[in-house]
Amino acid sequence: MAYIDAKEIKKSYKVGQIEINALNGVDFTINKGEFVVILGPSGAGKTTLLNILGGMDELTSGSIIIDEVIINKKKEKTLTQYRREDVGFVFQNYNLIQNLTALENVELATQISPNAKRPKDVLKIVGLSDRMNNFPAQLSGGEQQRVAIARAVAKNPKLLLCDEPTGALDTNTGKTVLLLLKQLAKEEQMTVIVITHNQVIAELADRVIRIVNGKVFSQVTQEPKDIKD
Ligand code: ADP
Ligand code: ADP
């Protein structure tokens, strides 16, 4: 059985008298441990989809089954628990707390998670053992994003949702970050979903789901390219 099974997902927002259809009937399945990139132009509905998968937004219609549970019918209490324990989030702008060190940022996230890994172990996995006492401002963009990834992964989530994680990085740093996410998917048996509008980054994924106008435009399973330089 697929880990994620999304059927006919629709989402509309009411803005005054106008109804905006962000998602117009999206269907897909994703397997456990799969590394999927969601690609598409601005306004296509990618963030809306990610927010729904993360239990941060509600569907208008359709259904989403994750790990055999219908998440759109969960009560708010179990949805909070789902967000807290089962899902990790990574954002474009890292969202690190500036007056905490890298280690403290990761520790903070593990305090509310019953299944958490040891912060120092995770910082080692992302290659930052020697930078863990640095504050975010003392780290490069790529390093800050690796701290943010460590923070998300330290919760030991089953699902890692990343919204433009390479959007603020140059292409090579972005590739490094993407390959790290991919390695984590394989080694930690995490399902990883990454939003991007960068075609170069998308080429590193196992599968690309292209969203256009709130619909799945195409799905391609690919032999991922490796970094050449
Ligand atoms: P993407 O992430 O692909 O750029 P989004 O999911 O952010 O696309 O947005 C899809 C559409 O839904 C856009 O037309 C956007 O303006 C609209 N939208 C997103 N969030 C809201 C909201 N909270 N209220 C109203 N419209 C929204
Ligand atoms: P990038 O080109 O990847 O953004 P930088 O040139 O900003 O990287 O940084 C190169 C190295 O110097 C990185 O390892 C970064 O952590 C370190 N560094 C940058 N700024 C500071 C700082 N203010 N204090 C300590 N280390 C820093």
Q: How is this structure best described in words?
A:
The protein has 229 residues and is an alpha/beta fold. The chain has a single domain (4-221), classed as P-loop containing nucleotide triphosphate hydrolases (Rossmann fold). The chain is 30% helix and 29% strand. It has helices at 46-53, 76-85, 102-110, 119-125, 141-154, 171-187, 199-202, and strands spanning 4-15, 18-30, 35-39, 61-66, 69-70, 87-90, 159-163, 191-196, 207-212, 215-221. It has a six-stranded mixed sheet, sandwiched between helices. It has a four-stranded antiparallel sheet with strand order 2-1-4-5, with helices on one face. A hairpin with a 2-residue loop joins strand 4 (61-66) and strand 5. Helix 5 (141-154) packs parallel to helix 6 (171-187). The model has no long low-confidence stretch (mean pLDDT 91). The structure holds adenosine-5'-diphosphate (2 copies). Keywords: ATP-binding, Nucleotide-binding, Transport. Residues 4-229 form the ABC transporter domain.
Provide a short characterization of the protein structure:
The chain has 229 residues and is α/β, with parallel strands linked by helices. 30% of the residues lie in helices and 29% in strands. The chain has a single domain, classed as P-loop containing nucleotide triphosphate hydrolases (Rossmann fold).
What are the main properties of this structure?
Rossmann fold; 229 residues; alpha/beta; single chain; 4-stranded antiparallel β-sheet; binds adenosine-5'-diphosphate; MacB-like_ATP-bd; globular; 10 strands; 7 helices
